[in-house]
Amino acid sequence: MKTSSDTRLFTYKDINRLPEGCYEIINGERREMTPTGFEHGDFEAGLGELLRSHLKDKGYVAVGEVGILIKKDPLRIRAADVVYISKEKSPVRPKGILEIPPDLIIEIISESNAAWEITDKVKDYLSIGVERILLVDPMTQTVSLYLKGKKEALLFNFDDEVTLVKGLTLRMKELFSP
Fold first, then answer.
1. Domains and CATH numbers, the chain
2. Cα(79)–Cα(67) distance, rounded to whole angstroms?
3. Are 109 and 83 in contact (CB under 8 A)?
């Protein structure tokens, strides 16, 4: 049984000394994340490699639950699967939790993700000004693209061409065959 002393509330002052682990912080509370499977990791790695090979001179790419500050008070930090941030936004390679919005976030949907969790995450990303958010769903072989300032998502199949960032398009089926 949990008592109030079992739960530590994190604040913005803790941002540079957060404990190791796979979690997000929602309104100051640590929310553990379920480990992902091989397919999820394969998608992350493949998309990260593609972005890095095409955009290495234009910005920075990171994969693997990259921390992104959504709100300082109460502290809200999301963990993204794949992140691209341009050198225009960050002239030097970022360190630690990102405190500026990336140009692109890609989330790979897992069977354990509830629809409301994904929607909540997308709303957080849009609230800080992320330009493009891609939700890749290997189970349905679909990609949902959310754009800053737009109210509707664009829906694609793995056969369709999707623009990841300006100048880089991809058909998911070319990167991942089931």
1. 4-175 (3.90.1570.10)
2. 5
3. no
